[in-house]
Amino acid sequence: MEHLIEVEGLYKHFPVKTFWGRKKGAVKAVDGVSFYIDKGKTVGLVGESGCGKSTLGKTIIRMNDVTAGRILFNGEDISKVKGRKLKEIHSKMQIIFQDPYSSLDPHMTVKDIIAEPLRVYRKLSEAEIVKEVSDLLEQVGLRADDMKKYAYEFSGGQRQRIGIARAISVKPEFILCDEPISALDVSIQAQVVNLLKELQEKYKLTYLFVAHDLTMVHHIADVIAVMYLGKIVEIGSSDDVYFNPKHPYTQALMKAVPKIEKDKVLDLNRDILEGDLPSPLDTQKGCSFCGRCPYAEEICKVNVPELKDDGTGHRTACFMHKKMQKNEIKFA
């Protein structure tokens, strides 16, 4: 399988300064991340709020500058490109934003919202733009006549469909789906995810799907990556990570997913993950999860675990493999 995106040792740090402008540290939003996304596939990226998921995605599509590391797109290093070359890259890498209420300009018609990237990247005539916008609206489940309306006239799910139409308008190869369903009603989320899957099959799109909902990520993703405090702590096939999580953090996330049977939420008697997500400003040694991990030992406080493959492509960053296997919980 050919890789479309390859991320190698990627860092994105945001400097923190005092009132007088002196640098006093940095927020390590992305802290040495490496993974790849195959063409036509979806990687689901999950983790708590503040762990760096969205920053990682926006750095990959170069909405953020890179602190260190490389991003390869179709084998080309795009981590330092600027100007006209960056504009060319952006025509091939698009984003669907989290909040459909704030990501669409209320002063623009739907036609102008979707046509904006067409005018920037594809240089179509006005007649061609009208036809293209009409086709795009119908592809995402809206009517061609909707192009005359304004975004505030639509529901949240319909607005997100407009955002999806805008993202696919320039025929990109890669789309960052930055929590595209988190602001939507539960009844609408599955419809949007199914639309994304249909468009992926039709246009051979590649996705990085950022979300909190592990069940929905399992539904759409081929690979699931779990992120904690700027690092990927577990990555593997969607079924492997969902049904057989190996990192204690992933296990805690899975235990937090409600199990429903016959329209009733079961009493899980699940353990609650203690403590809060540490500050990315902290410079503690060792594993960043050890303060909340029930399996942590002295080695965890001193050394940083690396992602290690179990021989099946399932990689986990944890020193406590053997100990966890004895207490392993199956989520079937």
Structure report:
The protein is α/β, with parallel strands linked by helices and 332 residues long. It folds into two domains: 3-92 and 172-326, Rossmann fold, CATH 3.40.50; 108-171. Helix content is 32%, strand content 24%. It is built from eleven helices and 14 strands. The strands form three sheets. An eight-stranded mixed sheet has the order 6-7-8-3-9-10-14-13, with helices on both faces. Helix 5 (156-168) runs parallel beside helix 6. It is globular. The relative contact order is 0.14.
Oligomer: single chain
What is the SS-derived class?
alpha/beta
Stretches where pLDDT is under 50 for at least 5 consecutive residues are 328-332
The total of beta strands comes to: 14
CATH topology of the largest domain: Rossmann fold
Distance between termini? 29 Å
The sequence of SSEs as H and E is: EEEHEEHEHHHEHEHEEHHEEHEEH
Labels describing this entry:
single chain, 332 residues, alpha/beta, 2 domains, eight-stranded mixed β-sheet, four-stranded antiparallel β-sheet, 14 strands, globular, disordered C terminus
Topology:
Blueprint: E1 3-17, E2 23-38, E3 42-46, H1 53-60, E4 68-73, E5 76-77, H2 83-90, E6 93-96, H3 110-122, H4 126-139, H5 156-168, E7 174-178, H6 186-203, E8 206-210, H7 214-220, E9 223-228, E10 231-237, H8 238-243, H9 248-255, E11 260-261, E12 264-265, H10 298-302, E13 308-309, E14 315-316, H11 321-326
Parallel strand pairs: 3-8, 3-9, 6-7, 7-8
Antiparallel strand pairs: 1-2, 1-4, 4-5, 9-10, 10-14, 11-12, 13-14
